[in-house]
Amino acid sequence: MCSEVGALLDTSFCVCHIVFMYTEHFKLAEIPFRVTPDPRYLWYSDQHLEAKEKILYHVTQSAGPIYLLAEVGTGKTTIAKRVGDELVARNNGRVVFVYAPKLTTTNAFLRFVMDEFEVKTERSYARSLKNFELFLLEQQRRGVSLVLLIDEAQNMTRDMLLLIQHLFNFSTDTQFLIQIVLFAQPELQPRLDRLKSLKSRLNLAKLRAFDLGQTKEMLEFRWHVAGGKKLPFANEAVQEIYRVTAGVPRLIVKLANEALIKAAVDGVSCIDRNTVAAVARDMMPDPI
Asked: Could you read off the pLDDT of 88-112 as tens digits, one per residue?
């Protein structure tokens, strides 16, 4: 037991030492390339900003339900959380943000959503649905707007998607009683294609991977937020990061972070293509 604790302490010390060496070496206030969704480090490309504003418009103007499609690592969840934060900051309603759970029945999913809104559920699916409808009507009478943001919506079954479609029927002549946004990986699209009635009611927003220029802008933005001055990546290094990651933001962040650690360990201040390539070989056995 003592040896296990000692090993953990040694590992923790090593990590802290590397972090300290990394930030000291490059004169940074903090680490700029973490994969955690810190909103301070969210850099908006034109397409990210367009997607966010499109979603906010549909929600705030009751312009109809919308879904965002994005590949893994392109910023889907970060956009979802930022949309939620901005809606909460406007303080004109109630926002529920959930990750689509891998539940087996539509009743379980309905109960899950109702629990998030703190609405009483029943054993009967029909009675639970009626309770939820009455809740939505009461909130509408009180002038409270309700928003449901569902991340990882590709996990939803066909029947769960049909429940979402049913919720769209809860509306007045001028607005929906609940605004719904789905955030999903592209696997959702084929299922929507088979549910033509649902698909016809949904508006679409998309995120794509960065191009080379956007890759460099994002690196520079994060570097400056962390207190850095001139970005230590040579142009050829940025090109290599883009080539290896195909412009996927999460992979860019991970590769840049590992390259900076290697540079700090090696005692170099400018990162070239070879450094990035060496790190990429360790991180990605099959580079893109």
From this structure: 988 768 999 998 877 888 999 999 9
Strand order in the sheet with 66-69: 93-99, 145-151, 179-184, 66-69, 203-206
Whether 175 has a pLDDT exceeding 90, the answer reads: no
Return the SS3 of 163.
helix
Task: Report pLDDT for 174.
Answer: 84
Q: Is the Cβ–Cβ distance between 148 and 180 less than 8 Å?
A: yes
Q: Is the pLDDT of residue 185 over 90?
A: yes
Contact 51, 191 (CB under 8 A): no
Looking only at the bridges linking them, the beta strands covering 145-151 and 66-69 are: unpaired
Tokens of 23: 């930030």
List of domains in the chain: 2-33+210-283 (1.10.8), 46-206 (3.40.50.300)
Number of alpha helices (DSSP H) and beta strands (DSSP E) in the chain? 12, 5
